[in-house]
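[User] Could I get a sequence and structure tokens?

[Assistant]
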Amino acid sequence: MRQPVGFKFSSVTDATFQALLGQILRGAYKPGHVLKELPLATELGVTTTTVKRAAEWLAGAGLLTRLPRRGWQVVRLDDRDLQSVYRLRGALESLAVARAVKRLSAGTLAELRAENERLSKVVPHARFGDARHQEYIEADYNFHRTLLDAAGNRILTETVDPLIRKSLLITTFTFSPTGRC
């Protein structure tokens, strides 16, 4: 059974990555927000090198952009980005489902059902920035990652995971009062 988002991390850099990702997905850092390494390092109690590595990972996932000599900026997503992310996810996750169906164990099927039930209970009550919104993000991510893991294709997982994170960024800000990324 795969560990859900929010459990222990394997390194300080991984924990920093998860902390920054969580802040972005909770809306603490909105699209266009500039993040500076030193203040983040101080806030998180880590080195600037650790923040830089974690920010590079987030950039690799398509959530931050490097601003030379100024820091990192949370990406701004437009309608075309939204369409592209969901079209690509639809095509690639269809492949994952086809592969996963052939390989599903009873345990994996139970995980998928549990996350699906969690999503259906949380969605009607989730409000941007509250605990249920965070629960929605975690359940959505865990559902799709469980499906990808069941497909058993590392390259497919490495390709789709950043798209899942980008779509969660989109989802986060469609909960926002402006409804725009």
Notes: The radius of gyration is 17 Å.
